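Chapter summary example.
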Amino acid sequence: MNQTQDQAAFKSGFISIIGRPNVGKSTFLNRVIGQKIAIMSDKPQTTRNKVQGVLTTNDSQMIFIDTPGIHKPKHKLGDFMMKIAVNALKEVDIILFMVNAEEGFGRGEEFILEKLKGVETPVFLVINKIDLVRPDALLTIIDEYQGKYDFAEIIPISAIEGNNVARLLEQIQERLEEGPQYYPADQVTDHPERFIVSELIREKALHLTREEVPHSLAVMMDKMEHRQEQEIIDIMATIVVERDSQKGIIIGKQGKMLKEIGRRAREDIERLLGSKVYLELWVKVQKDWRNKAFHLRDFGFTEEEY
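The structure predicted for these 306 residues follows.
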């Protein structure tokens, strides 16, 4: 923050982004921050941990919390993801309830609105993917939601194209109260580099593999260190799946799939770290890991911090 800046005028606050899986929360977060810190996929429930993105301007700092899509849990990992999402409603200054303009109001939205009852925090309805619907359809969506909850604001956007995102940020800043700058101006996330690197590897595997693999897939970072006297970072990671058949899919014929995952991940990681990267990947089977608490802890899913 500039020392000449009027300290009293500086605003800050925490903004939680909630919504059903696959409504575009991570796309929005990456758009706002200006770089990829949350992985994106067309497969639901891509986000598993709370991802915090920091946007600092001359007169404000907005800390966005991208949460796993709220859904009915089917295993211990699902329980964990739900706890993160629901806990993110507490102790924030603004809640962004994001919905997909292409999809009508359904049980998922009803479930989330139930969770919002009794919450005193201002809730913005953010209607995403407006680039995919006609304007008259958008008016119908707005009318339907207005009758179901007393939203502080209703703002249609296209996160992927950037339409109306600046207006949404203005509305958020207007609602924030004066507060401190929590993070340095150049910091865009509170997650360590190791976490983001592991997420980038997982993203490439999600993009390239078939439907039966994604939700059974985790990435464990085994090693990440600078090579002595060289501008190279050595990274070794293990892709964990639940079944032998999934291991075969990830490796691919003659190892081609694993090589392609590694190639695509390395490109993104080099952009993130600004350095050459040597990336080595392994694949391991841990049967039913999503239902075993000790495996969830091993893979970084710990409830204590929430």
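To summarize the output: DSSP finds nine helices and nine strands in the chain.
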